[in-house]
Write a structure and sequence with these properties.
The complex is a heterodimer of chains A (265) and B (641). Chain A is α/β, with parallel strands linked by helices and 265 residues long. Chain A folds into 2 domains: 111 residues, no CATH class; 112 residues, P-loop containing nucleotide triphosphate hydrolases (Rossmann fold). In chain A, 40% of the residues lie in helices and 24% in strands. Chain A has a 6-stranded mixed sheet with strand order 6-7-8-3-9-10, with helices on both faces. In chain A, strands 2-1-4-5 form a 4-stranded antiparallel sheet, with helices on one face. The longest helix of chain A is centred in the last third of the chain and has 22 residues. Chain A is globular and about 55 Å long. In chain B, a hairpin with a 2-residue loop joins strand 1 and strand 2. In chain B, helix 4 packs parallel to helix 10. By secondary structure, chain B is mainly α. In chain B, the strands form 2 sheets. In chain B, strands 1-2 form a two-stranded antiparallel sheet. Chain B has a two-stranded antiparallel sheet with strand order 3-4. Helices cover 68% and strands 4% of the residues of chain B. Chain B has 4 domains: 60 residues; 293 residues, no CATH class; 57 residues, no CATH class; 189 residues, MetI-like (MetI-like fold), CATH 1.10.3720.10. Classes of the chains: A alpha/beta (265), B mainly alpha (641). Chains A and B meet through strand 6, helix 3 and helix 5 of A and helix 24 and helix 25 of B.
Chain lengths: 265, 641
């Protein structure tokens, strides 16, 4: 029973102007161990709020969210997080960034160094251990972020648009890497994204969220992630099923946007 | 000699660099359009031209070039200035450099004054018509005095004779002056003069009074004529002084004038006596009329043509002396820009840029002299090393009460007058530093004192300010609690605190270090606070989810992340502290660079002032470069995160 279970999760913010924003309303879902969930939705639908609650950075207004039957009430090592960008410690080298968690736990330095080498190899950064992070490209930085999160061996990995700031080519490589890591480690992953394609490609399950109040609009179970483990990702994109799903979801999001912004002429 | 070589080198460098620059423009391929900053890259040769020009302007306007190439010119110009000074009074009587005769302008002026009083009296409400008539009568009588002086028929023979005498003397002087061997100096006189010249020293020589350790002002301009040409002018000036005195003693008072003015004075005196207290206004007018009459009496007013011959004689002498100056005149015009040597009475001085802009050579010599530890400034070297026993430092650090709290009593002398040390006494010796260990060199002096004050103030500011600032950036209580305190004292200019702090904590190091501590503290708090509150939330979140504790996040995330702000803050604080320190040392103190400048100011030691300015600039630059190096070394990620 190492599931992530959310029960009637509500989050209400107060803006500085005094308005209340219902960021999440009555969110109920269960995520089984080893599942890869992608969350998609227009901006302002509460994706990041959901992630922050799951990570324990903020507390929900009401409702309970549990991981392994334990209520989440603060940040913890069992839930690792990968951010969009800028979350690396640029005053440290790649290796120091990666071993940050272990160093904070004061683990044996020799063991730690070994683990760092292993993980750098997995994310494809062998030999970069002593490079300062500010000298790395965007894609490499995200690889470091992945390794830094994974070395702590978390039960759940939360990814907040980790590939959002990367160029198309690097992005595709990184998508394969995420799938590879998911397969090899069998971790539960929640990945938030803006890109419909990415959500379809990576998500074993997909939630499309709707704004005002933030809620799960539609849920999909998708075959593409398991296909991606064997096939080339570009081949999957040519798949008819894939295109149909993509159009369907795009339509859905367009409608949501129109609801908010008013219809463009 | 050095000045000459440097001047020559500067010209060579400037011309060479300009030629090189022009050739570069011709051969360079055009690879950047206008506006591309690449066009501003490089250009060391222009740096050379720029610094050469700066040095050249300094050399030129401080008259160092004149001193280098014509070291005796100042002495000679001093003698010329003496002649000009003696001639001045006589020249002013005539339209030589003025527009009109002195007599004419005096008459114009006094007539104007009489008219003013006349108008005032006639318009006055406070005096009756009868008195007005009397006062107008006085005015008429006063103005009638002037024709008595300007009438050629009335001038006395005695006066005429004296004017002729003076004219004759001037003509004789002119004649003698043009003779090559004037002023007919004897061998003995020559030897005495040359001896005096060598004792006096040259232009801008630095004298050190041995033993006192203090630096005297540089001799501005040597007075005693060193050259034959100088002696000529010197002697002529002395003779001219006598002639001028004779002329100004002379009065053109004929008997009619004397009678008239005596009568006028008596009339006004008796008139004022008869006036009652209530008629004070009329009395004041009468008094003012007498004043004008007296001015007419003592002004050298002569008939229009009475002084013609004398005027010609003066012009002739003036031409002769200008001719005798020869090449000196061109040196004066070309190499003494923005001023010249001016004499007043017996002494000469530089007036103009050469006065406040010290000559590079003098400044350099004085700096070398001041750098010597035996000279220094006010018996304290600029920067030197003293051998201090380590025991003194141990005694300073260890508190004395360590000995007091030990059991037992301090030793008491015996009846034989012998003091036998016991353990407690020996401990006291250790904690007060009363023992010998080994000596280490410790720097001291004005520069070191200033440096140490800035350093200590800064270190205390950093030690307290950085943790407090980080705390304030992260904690609501700390921010709220300390903010009023900081905001209360920070907006006050630090120098406004200086008088208070110096009077409370003393003029020595304590007060100044505390003042600098205050300056650096607020800057460090603000920068550390900005650094702490500017940490990206994602980094904090990442650290949290990596399992770091609060203390670890502070130590490993927030502190390194604030380091750029903190270091920039230190750089700002150093600049502020440096500025405040110098001003605080102006206010009060006994050592430090600012103190040196302040004392130098009191004695018009322009060289020392410029030396201190230079030292301060260099030290400020040194601080900044050091910090920039540290910043580049410690935070290479700045601006790349």
């Amino acid at each position: 029973m190492s599931d992530l279970i959310s029960q009637n999760l509500n989050m209400i913010f107060k803006t500085p102007k005094g308005e209340t924003v219902h960021a999440l309303k009555d969110l109920n879902f269960t995520l089984k161990k080893g599942e890869l969930l992608t969350v998609l939705g227009p901006s302002g639908c509460g994706k990041t709020t959901l992630l922050n609650i799951t990570a324990g950075f903020i507390r929900p207004t009401s409702g309970v969210i549990t991981l392994n039957n334990k209520e989440i009430d603060g940040p913890g090592v069992e839930r690792g997080m990968v951010f969009q960008q800028g979350a690396l410690f640029e005053w440290l080298t790649v290796a120091e960034n990666v071993n940050f968690g272990l160093r904070m736990k004061k683990e044996d330095p020799i063991q730690t160094a070994k683990k760092v080498d292993e993980w750098l190899e997995i994310v494809g950064l062998q030999g970069f251990g002593n490079t300062p992070t500010y000298q790395l490209s965007g894609g490499m930085q995200q690889r470091v972020a992945l390794a830094r999160c994974l070395i702590n061996d978390p039960d759940l990995i939360l990814m907040d648009e980790p590939l959002g700031a990367l160029d198309a080519l690097t992005r595709e490589k990184m998508q394969s890497l995420v799938l590879k890591i998911w397969k090899e480690t069998g971790k539960t992953i929640i990945l938030i994204t803006h890109s419909v394609e990415e959500a379809l490609l990576l998500g074993e399950r997909l939630y499309v969220m709707a704004p005002r109040p933030g809620r799960i609009h539609k849920e999909y179970n998708l075959p593409f992630a398991s296909m991606g483990l064997k096939e080339d990702l570009r081949e999957i994109k040519k798949n008819k099923d894939f295109s149909a799903k993509r159009e369907e979801i795009l339509e859905m999001i367009w409608n949501m946007e129109e609801e908010i912004m008013g219809k463009d002429i | 000699m050095l000045t000459q070589i440097i001047t020559f080198l500067i010209f060579v460098a400037v011309i060479g660099c300009i030629l090189y620059g022009r050739r570069l423009i011709k051969t360079e391929k055009v690879d950047a359009v206008f506006g591309n900053p690449e066009r501003a890259l490089g250009g060391t040769h222009w740096v050379i031209v720029g610094s050469s020009f700066l040095l050249l302007i300094w050399l030129y306007y401080s008259w160092d070039i004149a001193k280098g190439f014509y070291p005796k010119s100042a002495n000679e110009l001093c003698q010329v200035a003496k002649v000009n000074d003696s001639l001045l009074g006589l020249k002013y009587q005539f339209p030589i450099e003025e527009r009109e005769f002195k007599s004419t302008s005096q008459i114009k002026k006094e007539n104007k004054n009489l008219n003013l009083i006349l108008n005032e009296i006639q318009a006055s409400q406070e005096i009756d018509n009868q008195q007005k008539t009397v006062l107008v009568g006085f005015i008429n009588k006063t103005s009638q005095l002037i024709p008595l002086l300007t009438n050629e028929d009335l001038i006395e023979n005695e006066t005429k004779q004296k004017i002729n005498d003076i004219t004759g003397k001037i003509n004789l002087l002119t004649e003698n002056f043009q003779k090559p061997d004037y002023p007919f100096e004897t061998e003995q006189e020559l030897n005495e003069r040359l001896k005096a010249v060598s004792e006096e020293g040259g232009w801008g020589i630095v004298k050190v009074q041995s033993g006192t350790g203090s630096i005297e002002n540089t001799m501005e301009v040597p007075l005693i004529p060193a050259t034959d040409r100088g002696l000529k002018f010197h002697t002529a000036a002395q003779e001219l002084n006598l002639i001028s005195d004779e002329f100004f003693k002379l009065r053109n008072h004929n008997p009619q004038f004397k009678n008239q003015i005596k009568q006028l004075k008596d009339d006004i005196k008796s008139y004022r006596k008869d006036l009652s207290d209530s008629e004070e206004v009329a009395s004041t007018y009468a008094k003012n009329i007498v004043k004008i009459a007296r001015r007419i009496e003592f002004a050298s007013i002569y008939p229009p043509n009475a002084l013609n011959k004398m005027q010609n004689a003066i012009i002739k002498f003036d031409n002769a002396q200008i001719k005798a100056q020869g090449g000196l005149r061109f040196i004066d015009i070309l190499l003494f820009p923005a001023g010249t040597i001016v004499a007043s009475g017996p002494s000469c001085s530089e007036q103009g840029s050469g006065r406040w802009l010290p000559k590079p050579s003098d400044t350099f010599n004085k700096f070398i002299l001041m750098s010597k530890p035996s000279v220094g400034y006010k018996d304290i070297p600029l920067l030197w090393i003293d051998m201090v026993d380590v025991s003194k430092m141990i005694g300073f650090i260890l508190p004395d009460w360590i000995a007091d709290i030990l059991p037992g009593e301090y030793p008491v002398h015996t009846k034989d007058g012998i003091v036998k040390e016991n353990f407690k006494g020996n401990v006291l010796k250790v904690v007060t530093g009363d023992f010998k260990l080994f000596k280490v060199p410790v720097p001291y002096g004005h520069i070191w004192d200033s440096f140490l004050r800035v350093f200590l103030g800064l270190v205390f500011g950093i030690i307290i300010g950085v943790p407090l600032g980080l705390f304030m950036g992260l904690n609501r209580f700390a921010k709220g609690f300390f903010d009023p305190l900081i905001e209360l004292y920070r907006p006050v200019p630090p120098l406004a605190w200086a008088p208070l702090i110096i009077s409370v904590l003393g003029i020595d190091n304590t007060g100044k270090v505390f003042l600098l501590f205050m300056v650096s503290l607020s800057i460090m708090i603000i920068s550390a606070r900005a650094g702490a509150s500017g940490t990206q939330l994602s980094k904090i979140h990442a650290a949290h989810s990596l399992g770091a504790s609060k203390r670890q996040i502070l130590r490993h995330v927030i502190f390194p992340n604030s380091l750029p702000e903190i270091l920039t803050g230190i750089r700002v604080a150093v600049g502020m502290c440096w500025g405040t320190l110098v001003a605080a040392e102006f206010l009060a103190g006994t050592t430090g660079i600012g103190f040196v400048e302040n004392v130098a100011k009191k004695y018009f030691q322009y060289e020392v002032i410029w030396i201190t300015i230079f030292i301060m600039g260099m030290l400020g630059l040194l601080f900044d470069i050091t910090l920039r190096k540290i910043i580049d070394k410690t935070i290479p990620w700045r601006g790349k995160g």
